[in-house]
Amino acid sequence: MLERINGPQDIMALNQEELADLAQEIREFLIEKISTTGGHLASNLGVVELTIAIFRTFHLPEDKIIWDVGHQAYTHKILSGRREEFDELRQFGGISGFPKTKESPCDAFNTGHSSTSISAGLGMALARDLREESHFVVSIIGDGALTGGMAYEALNNAARIDRNFIIILNDNNMSISENVGGISKYLTSLRTGEGYNDLKKNVTSALEKIPVAGPKLIDKISRTKQGIKQLLIPGMLFEDMGITYLGPVDGHDTKRLCKVLKEAKRLNHAVLVHVLTKKGKGYRPAEKQPDRFHGVDPFDIKTGKPKKERIFPSYTEVFSKQLCYLAGKDERIVAVTAAMPEGTGLKRFQKLYPERFFDVGIAEQHGVTSAAGMAAGGLRPVVAVYSSFLQRGYDQILHDVCIQNLPVVFAVDRAGLVGSDGETHQGIFDLSYLTSIPNMSVLAPKNLWELRREMEFALSYNGPIAIRYPRGEAYRGLKEFDAPVEYGKGEILYEGKELALLAVGSMVSTAEHIRDKLMAEGIEATLANGRFIKPVDFELVDDLAKNHSHLVTLEENVLQGGFGLQVLAYVHEHYPQVKVLTIALPDTYVEHGNVSLLRETLEIDSDSIIRKMKEQGFAG
After folding, report:
1. The pLDDT of residue 396
2. Which of 256, 331, 530, 618 has its CA 20 to 30 A from that of 124?
3. In terms of Cα–Cα distance, which of 334, 463, 321 is closest to 405?
4. How many CB atoms lie under 10 A from the CB of residue 461?
């Protein structure tokens, strides 16, 4: 069946039995390809039938489909004609793991972060109406994404639209980890209860059998303020907001899905279709551990185990163990995550200190402000979050944490280039947006030992502070330089002549490699670890500028607003005779690809930097 699908309309030629075969083939295809390339597996296995039903019911690319987050759009990509490109999924130059408008006209909107699809879809529906067009707009959102406040802002406005707008709630009781909070409990009550539409029909049929009074009762109930739905399903959150609710419907029954989606198309207002799916469906390891198979590296299909086991600890693991150690000595320490206890390393903390662990759901803004409240109440909160997701809480960091100078620690994971998830997930802006905020301090470890030291310092510091560290294996070099952290102070690691390398975070190891290669050419360079990005250790910069004619700064962040420009401005003002070369990422969004390849392409690897230094007279 799969070989017959080369474009969005090809699925129309298949009958119901062939659709079941197609679903099975798609699952086998996804498991085979993702086991080789890595990617998002469990979420995609869960929406195969739903995606088939969408392609059967709507006409792409004329109709617009917006996938929330978008990591579950692999079947969408297959059905829209990109099957042959899956060997290069998430590889440099290959197709993205998320919807991309430049890839296909069937991708209506670029996505990558949660809780955005209803807002985007509503905007596209309003544009359609103002332009007097007639296509359908469909936003697919997961139940996990409904923990994000932006989704409710959009639902509130969607109730006002007077033409068709369809919202599909893909309910699998999971975001990345298991869902938490009130909305999860509410949806559980809908899942476990009888379907509303079946109940409505049964009650109506029973009332019709009552002579004389029956029809009057039906009319009276239907015109009651809350309506029959309030009698049958207490709360009816979506109906109360003014959005018609259809479901729940089995998300793995293509025939029923097509029927309810056709029903949704007939309504001239906003409608929400509640679909129940199983994350990881069709692959036992992913069904049993959907959180572990949310995003995976290449794995063995038979066992589900990664093909390459990590030997050395990651920065996330180092952070996790150190936080638990420090929490054992200080009961004020609490941990906050936005639906990612596994990814941020807080699962260990949750097991050891469950009463001090808080999963706020996919709600970074709320997480940051609730941490501010905890700090104001005398606790020492640690907010563990990916760099690209912390962007979502920028106003709360500025307004609720930093204006009050509250002692909140931000453990900023996945800082710098993260690789295959691409432009929506690269953590290359945090130095710029965090250092722009008064009262915020920012530091980055050169290796795993310094991360431990920085955490000790951060949890004793009386103000907002962020520690940013990269994805993957923690650097184990430079162990001999392990000393307590002093506020605002960097360190000189090796003394040299004429040329000084001043690096921060992950780029310290790169600078060490540069120094070693230059030494082999007879060039002695000084190597310094800035450690603090805010405040910059300008006394260290003074020492370097007084004793060297050339200074190179290195950081894994965009140049604008980063570490290097602060140093450049200072040296230009106080030491105009010293030449400064700033090594940073370009002012652009970085596509997906292997991190090592991206570093070479963006010219922040050691060989590219040495070449650039020589071209500008900084070496040789």
Report:
1. 98
2. 256
3. 463
4. 17
pLDDT exceeding 70 applies to what percent of the chain? 91
**Which residues in the chain land under pLDDT 70?**
174-204, 207, 212, 216-235
**Spatial contact of 537 and 489, defined as CB atoms under 8 Å apart:** yes
DSSP 8-state secondary structure symbol assigned to residue 195: P
Rounded CA-CA distance 367/114 in Å is 15
Q: Are 149 and 365 in contact (CB under 8 A)?
A: yes
As a three-state string, the secondary structure of 484-543 is CCCCCCCEEEECCCEEEEEECCCHHHHHHHHHHHHHHCCCCEEEEECCEEECCCHHHHHH
DSSP annotation string for 368-403? HHHHHHHHHTT-EEEEEEEHHHHGGGHHHIIIIIIT
**Structure confidence by residue, pLDDT tens digits, 368-385:** 999 999 999 999 999 999
Q: Which helix (H) or strand (E) holds 554?
A: strand 548-558
**Which residues participate in catalysis according to the annotation?**
279, 364, 392
CB within 8 A of 67, min separation 6: which ones?
Answer: 73, 76, 99, 111, 117, 140
Query: CB atoms < 10 A from the CB of 593, how many?
Result: 20
Question: Tens of pLDDT along 385-398?
Answer: 999 999 999 999 99
Q: Rounded to the nearest 5°, which phi and psi values hold at 101?
A: -60, -30
Residues 6+ apart with CB under 8 A from 302: none
The DSSP symbol for 136 reads: -
Amino acid letter, 436: S
Q: Of 466, 465, 514, 470, nearest to 493 (Cα)?
A: 514
For residues 402 and 405, what is the distance between their CA atoms, to the nearest angstrom? 5
Q: What is the predicted pLDDT for the residue at 177?
A: 47
Tokens standing for residue 155: 């639902």
Is the separation of the CB atoms in 52 and 5 below 8 Å? no
pLDDT at 234: 35
- Give 124-130's long-range contacts (Cβ < 8 A, gap of 24+): 124/64, 124/66, 125/161, 125/163, 125/164, 125/165, 126/161, 128/64, 128/163, 129/161, 129/163
pLDDT attached to residue 204: 65
Give the full edge-to-edge strand order of the sheet including 491-494: 491-494, 525-529, 498-503, 548-558, 579-585
DSSP letter (8 states) at residue 137: E
Q: Residue 350 carries which DSSP code?
A: H
Q: How far is CA 157 from the centre of its chain?
A: 25
Instruction: Output the pLDDT for position 311.
Output: 82
The helix (H) or strand (E) run that includes residue 599 is helix 595-601
Q: What's the rounded Cα separation, in Å, for the pair 542 and 553?
A: 14
Q: Do 152 and 108 touch, CB atoms closer than 8 A? A: no
Q: What is the pLDDT of residue 229?
A: 47
